[in-house]
Automatic annotation (TrEMBL):
The lineage of its organism: Bacteria, Bacillati, Actinomycetota, Actinomycetes, Geodermatophilales. Residues 1-27 form the signal peptide. This is Glycine betaine/choline-binding (Lipo) protein of an ABC-type transport system (Osmoprotectant binding protein). Keywords: Signal. It comes from the Bacteria. It comes from Modestobacter italicus (strain DSM 44449 / CECT 9708 / BC 501). Residues 35-301 form the ABC-type glycine betaine transport system substrate-binding domain.
């Protein structure tokens, strides 16, 4: 399958945004973008946190770093990585494989198989897949605790008879993503009565609690989940729609060649230590405690 390419106008916008951020001082340490290791994140909170964690390790290794949070969706950022607009993107194994080659994910059921497949797909495109972390975050589908109690549901498969009368809430790209609404239809037979675009995961939780939607997409490490008092609960993925989603850094091979082992070693150091519990804690630090992603990353490093 030929490499995916973003339209040239989209990449031009990304380039202009990166240049503008550097001119406005958001490129760390006063470095020009061409003189830094450019970390970009997808446009949701957890990925911004992960980019900050991995960038902090590179910074502590003495590398010049620029951090560009919320650069866009995967459809924009991954092609920008391939084309050298950015140098490092922190991704998730299963989703990355399906994005790069949506027709070729069969037989990649373990993290090791996913990693090998992703490496083989991206190497010809000038991208190196470094070691994956134990930390994992999958798409999850949540309902309010009150809804789960009223309808006696704890598994996704139990929603099938209810779905036509329910409203689903998720990000705007959810209707096109195979691990979101298309997967729910194919694997679980879920056809919701309506679909509502949600601007954020926090808004999704608020809508679930208010009852304006009944089912919503939340990552499994979302800070608002867990504990008996949580207002929303995840439904079990009892037919295994979601693949393994270990956190994994994708790096421009040219950047590894330029910065040597210091860059690879710094990023591998994060992956060797980052656990799913750590990821949940980082999300909580930002989403509940109000820390910035960079502050949460620095605290994680100080305490690890």
């Amino acid at each position: 399958m030929p490499p995916r390419r973003a339209p040239s106008v989209v990449l031009l916008v990304v380039l202009l945004l990166l240049a503008a951020s550097a001119c406005s001082g958001s490129a760390d340490d006063g470095e020009r973008p061409g003189d830094t290791v450019r970390f970009a994140s997808y446009d949701f909170s957890e990925n911004e946190i992960l980019a900050a964690v991995y960038a902090e390790s590179a910074r502590q290794a003495g590398l010049p770093v620029s951090l560009h949070p919320g650069a866009g969706t995967r459809e924009v950022v991954e092609p920008a990585l391939e084309q050298g607009v950015v140098d490092v993107v922190v991704d998730y194994l299963g989703t990355a494989v399906r994005f790069v080659d949506p027709s070729g994910a069969a037989g990649t059921s373990t993290p090791e198989q996913l990693h090998a497949t992703l490496s083989a797909l991206l190497a010809p495109r000038g991208v190196t897949v470094l070691a994956a972390a134990a930390a994992e975050d999958q798409n999850g589908f949540a309902v309010s605790r009150a809804f789960a109690t009223e309808h006696g549901v704890s598994r996704l498969s139990e929603l099938e008879p209810l779905a036509p009368g329910l409203a689903f809430g998720g990000p705007p790209e959810c209707p096109e993503r195979p691990l979101c609404l298309p997967g729910l239809r194919e694997v679980y037979g879920l056809r919701f009565g309506s679909v509502v675009n949600m601007p954020s995961r926090a808004a999704t939780v608020e809508a679930l609690v208010a009852g304006s939607i009944q089912v919503g997409l939340l990552e499994t490490t979302d800070a608002r989940l867990g504990g008996g008092g949580a207002p929303v609960v995840l439904l079990a993925d009892d037919r295994a729609l979601q693949p393994h989603e270990n956190v994994v850094p994708l790096v421009r091979t040219a950047a590894l060649e330029r910065w040597g082992d210091r860059l690879a070693d710094a990023l591998d150091a994060v992956s060797a230590r980052l656990t799913t519990a750590d990821l949940s804690g980082l999300n909580r630090a930002v989403e509940v405690e109000g820390l910035t992603p960079r502050a949460a990353a620095a605290r994680w490093w100080d305490g690890s």
